[in-house]
Design a protein that fits this description.
With about 450 residues, the chain is mostly helical. It is built from 19 helices and eight strands. It folds into three domains: about 260 residues, Lysozyme (Orthogonal Bundle), CATH 1.10.530.10; about 60 residues, no CATH class; about 60 residues, Roll (Membrane-bound Lytic Murein Transglycosylase D, Chain A).
């Protein structure tokens, strides 16, 4: 099966792209069902033309690394440093991505608020910039992405690994979704597993499969005198396909002509967001209004908050061009910054009863407090309810990291009592002997 050479030698792939006209694919369709260690991917579509590149590579233009590029794609391209992977799976995924330019465009639009920060951090650490494309594989750059394995955020941390890298996960926030905290944790993790293996492909396999699993696979090959590189290890299909997806994206974003043909938008090489620390609690809705932003856009930059209040001394992330607006509106804001107060449950009662008492809807309280439904809450539970935000007990609630809510188990229904008419029958089902009239007297 012929396959394309990588990076600069992808000019011929433009011809492949021009001929692509496959059926519409869902995002999940990028994961085919392939056999483990199969020599040829069963999922390669015969209707997609393959183009073999000759041995003579085209002359690449000279890159001036001292100049500041206007496009973030140019900057990322200049920092490519990982060894290229060149196999049929890479070609398969490259064809799949190219046949779905709408998917690429959506991922790029989602990445726009985060990508500059990620590239800055990679360069500051001296890490390969193709890692900036990894969230496309992990989450399609959706900060709210959540998997069946309970992985969350752009970088898809599972709870245990998140705690290992100091990502807070409590009633108030989940830092696996925090743009800054999760990016720093992901790069810390990637650097640690690269230091362990000394190879970026093995590091990426460890990120997907677990470093201990990769370590055991390497040791198994060593024991049998086999090569220990990524391509030679036995691994789950998901991990086998993981790095080819990243390589396929690297090939596409490494080719400016191909990006233009696919109508992939440029991303400016300039900061998108700035962080501000709030000295007092502020509602998510009020903060968005102060920044003159739609609520969805504000949450896209501040996705870690589980509750409708941002706690004091917590960074608020804003588009750089909205900071002045936010500060101006904050200075002129005369109302409380929070419309919520704490409510303490005196005796077991349902959410609907509390909602009726405080003048809120049941759905509003369920959503604000992350409840599974109209459950029965135990006495002593504290929850957020609409109010003036100035109640004395709000701070005690804000200081709690564990959930302050206790769900009261439903009382067990008593089994109905059986009523027996007349005397019991003795064992064996015989009737008791009749008593004489004399005895009844």
């Amino acid at each position: 099966m012929p396959f394309c050479n990588l990076q600069g030698r992808l000019l011929g792939v433009v011809a492949v792209c021009a001929a692509l006209a496959g059926p519409a694919l869902a995002d999940d369709d990028l994961q085919p069902a392939l056999r483990l260690d199969s020599a040829q991917p069963a999922g390669i579509r015969p209707d997609l033309p393959l183009l073999e590149i000759g041995q003579a590579a085209p002359q690449l233009p000279t890159i001036d690394l001292t100049a500041t590029p206007d496009s973030l794609w140019d900057r990322i391209r200049n920092g490519f440093a990982m060894t290229d992977l060149n196999n049929d799976l890479v070609l398969y995924y490259q064809q799949r991505y190219q046949s779905r330019p709408d998917l690429l465009q959506r991922m790029v639009e989602r990445s726009r608020p985060y990508l500059f920060y990620i590239v800055e951090e990679l360069e500051a650490r001296g890490m390969p910039t193709e890692l900036a494309l990894l969230p496309m594989v992990e989450s399609a750059f959706d900060p709210m992405a959540y998997s069946r394995a309970h992985a969350s955020g752009l970088w898809q941390f599972i709870p245990a690994t998140g705690r290992r890298f100091n990502l807070e996960q409590n009633w108030w926030q989940d830092e696996r979704r925090d743009i800054i905290a999760s990016t720093n944790a992901a790069l810390d993790y990637l650097q640690a597993i690269y230091d362990m293996h000394g190879d970026w492909h093995l590091a990426l396999a460890s990120y997907n499969w677990g470093e201990n699993a990769v370590k055991r696979a390497v040791e198994k090959n060593e024991a049998h005198g086999l090569p220990t590189d990524y391509a030679s290890l036995r691994m789950p299909n998901e991990t086998r396909h993981y790095i080819p997806k990243l390589q396929a994206l690297k090939n596409i974003f490494g080719n400016p002509a191909l990006l233009a043909l696919l109508n992939v938008p440029q991303v400016p090489n300039s900061p998108y967001f700035t962080t501000l620390e709030m000295p007092q609690p502020v509602d998510v809705r009020i903060a968005a209004r102060l920044a003159d932003m739609p609520l969805d856009e504000f949450r896209q930059l501040n996705p870690a908050h589980n509750r409708p209040i941002i706690k004091a001394d917590t960074a608020v992330v804003l588009p750089t061009d909205k900071v002045d607006t936010f500060l101006h509106n904050l200075r002129n804001h005369r109302m409380p910054l929070s419309r919520w107060r704490a409510y303490t449950v005196a005796s077991p009662e349902r959410v609907a009863q509390i909602a009726s008492r405080v003048g809120a809807s049941t759905a509003e309280l369920i959503q604000a407090n992350g409840l599974p439904g109209n459950v029965r809450l135990a006495a002593g539970s504290r929850l957020l309810v609409p109010g003036d935000g100035n109640a004395d007990n709000l701070q005690r609630l804000l200081d709690a990291s564990a959930s302050p809510i206790i769900i009261q188990p439903e009382p067990k229904a008593r089994a109905p009592q059986k009523k027996h008419g007349g005397a019991k029958k003795p064992a064996g089902g015989k009737k008791p002997p009749a008593r004489s009239q004399t005895a009844r007297r």
